[in-house]
Amino acid sequence: MNILTKFHGEQEINRENIITFPSGIPGFLDEKEFYILPLEGTELFVLQSVKTTEVAFIVTDPFTLLPQYEFDLPEEVLEKLEIQSDKDVATFAILTVRDPFEDTTVNLQAPLVINQTKKIGKQVILNQIPYKTKHKIMTPHEQGER
User: Fold this and answer.
1) Which end of the chain is less crowded, N or C, counting CB atoms within 10 A of the terminal residue's CB?
2) Are residues 61 and 106 in contact, defined by beta-carbon separation less than 8 angstroms?
3) Phi, psi dihedral angles at 56 (to 5 degrees)
4) Residues paired with residue 34 on neighbouring β-strands, in sequence order
5) pLDDT tens series, the chain, 146 aa
6) Strand pairing partners for 113?
7) Is 89 exposed, middle or buried (0-12, 13-18, 19+ CB in 10 A)?
8) What residue ranges do the domains of the chain occupy?
9) How buried is 121 (Cβ within 10 angstroms: 0-12 exposed, 13-18 middle, 19+ buried)?
10) CATH superfamily for domain 2-139
11) Rounded distance between C-alpha atoms, residue 143 and residue 122, angstroms
């Protein structure tokens, strides 16, 4: 099937790879189906709504950004997403891209957790962790190296 995307124009996608967010994403509760597209030449991806072209989030693997990042999923999330093992899980964090890019932040307090086997996802709000919704992706030291 073909969809119109915010950053990639018209794209042919495989319906089997559509990820369903049964509860939507906070702020976008009517958006239930998304597709993940790579941003060429980066470690970033676009989580694109299948229904609404303008609804697209720049996401990344939070473990790539912050190797010590960790959290435990609540039991009800494991059940809702039908997660049987760690191999089922893909985790993404939403970026707020700013200009200049060095000011970009990542939401580590509410990761997107996806059962990649069943293609079911949920944004999980984590309250018992030290991470923030606007975590800088680059430290001042890294910004100086650019």
Assistant:
1) C
2) no
3) -150, 135
4) 19, 49
5) 999 999 999 999 999 999 999 999 999 999 999 999 999 899 999 999 999 999 999 999 999 989 999 999 999 999 999 999 989 999 999 999 998 888 999 999 999 999 999 999 999 999 877 877 888 887 654 444 44
6) 91, 122
7) middle
8) 2-139
9) buried
10) BH3618-like (2.30.290.10)
11) 32
Tell me the whole-structure pTM to 2 decimals.
Answer: 0.90
Q: Which residue has the tokens 């991806």?
A: 45
Choose among 47, 24, 35: nearest CA to 1: 35
- HEC per residue, the chain: CEEEECCCEEEECCHHHCEECCCCECCECCCCEEEEEECCCCCEEEEEECCCCCCEEEEECHHHHCCCCCCCCCHHHHHHCCCCCHHHEEEEEEEECCCCHHHCEECCCCCEEEECCCCEEEECCCCCCCCCCCEECCCHHHHHHC
